[in-house]
Amino acid sequence: MGKLSFLKQKKFYINLLIIILLSFFLLWLTIRLLNVYTRHGKVYELPDFSGMTIEEVKSEYGKAYHFILIDSVYSKTQEPGTIVQQDPLPQSKVKHGRNVYYIIVAHTPEKTNMPNLNNLSLRQALVLLESNGLAVKELKYINHFARNAIREQRYNDEIIKPGTEIIKGSKITLYVGLGTDQRNSKIPKLYGTPAEEVQHLLNMNGLNLGNETFEDKDSIQYMKVYKMEPPYSRGSVRPGTFVDVWYRSSKKFNFEKESSSMLKEDSLKNIAEKQAELDSLAALKDSIESTETEELDNEDYEDEF
Question: Number of structural domains, the chain?
Fold first, then answer.
């Protein structure tokens, strides 16, 4: 009997068929179990947990998600113990069982030490201030030969010494050198900038944040700048100028679609303002020349007598 004689036996093909079918079944079963385990294709929209306590959140969503606290911040306007920020963001598409990281409002204010900002450059001072959990109240420019050098740091209108313990989030007024040339500060392009980044960007350019207007009712994380005054097209303004900004929600306003028309409108407005200034200067020049001519005529008339 040859070595390949088993190929002529019916029993061999029956066993081979059973093995093939069993292999396909095991493969199908594995895929099904993986889909069940990973919830393949099943995603859910993550709710907005802001304003809720972690007890409330876990009571309602504890079986669907795993919540992990990563930090706490103090706020005078929000209820202690409530969630102020989450990751992933609200309305994100996630699977059940996903880790949700959150930040809550602290029950007691956290404190830090006031850094020494004197004689640092404005940019260095802002970085150091923010790294210590403090913020800028206002940039006040004073006559000093070193441009953008910090000359004084004040809290509640009083000089605050380096090392003084202060509540995190406190706002500090910085007195900054104007420099010998006293040149203007460049206006940054804020259109489409998230609300949380606006003040930092303005301060870095030697400007102050003025009035903020929120056109839409939505979470701060969706708010972006869609208008500013003075406008970006003006180019530059005096250091310390307050810039007013208007916000729209990125969920309700198409920033990419509207950017060209908004910037065009901004530019045309600036051109009109500049033309008005030129017309005013021209009128003033004509008035001065007219006055000088009248004075010369009067002198000639007096000389005749």
Answer: 3
**pTM summary value:** 0.60
119 backbone φψ class: left, alpha, beta (φ>0; ψ -120 to 50): left
Q: How confident is the model at residue 198 (pLDDT cuts 50, 70, 90)?
A: very high
Q: For residues 180 and 151, is the Cβ–Cβ distance under 8 A? A: no
Q: Which tokens in the block code for residue 284?
A: 């003033």
Q: Which amino acid does the sequence have at 282?
A: A
User: Does residue 161 belong to any structural domain of this protein?
Assistant: yes
Structure tokens at 304: 């005749």
Domain boundary among 60, 83, 105: 105
State the maximum Cα–Cα separation within the chain, in Å, rounded to a whole number: 153
88 prior amide bond cis, ω within 30: yes
Rounded Cα gap, residues 176 and 185, in angstroms = 13
What is the pLDDT averaged over residues 151-157?
96
For residue 171, is it within any domain?
Answer: yes
Residue 302: what pLDDT? 47
Phi-psi region of 214 (alpha: psi -120 to 50; beta: other; left: phi over 0): beta
Q: List, in order, residues 6 or more apart from 25 with CB less than 8 Å away.
A: none
State which amino acid sits at residue 160: I
Range of the domain at 249: 184-278
- Three-class secondary structure of residue 179 per DSSP: coil
CATH code of residue 269: 3.30.10.20
Long-range contacts of 212-219 (CB under 8 A, 24+ apart): 212/244, 212/245, 212/246, 212/247, 213/244, 213/245, 213/246, 213/247, 214/247, 215/246, 215/247, 215/248, 216/247, 216/248, 216/249, 216/252, 216/253, 218/249, 218/251, 218/252, 219/48, 219/50, 219/90
Residue 223 in domain: yes
Domain membership flag for residue 230: yes
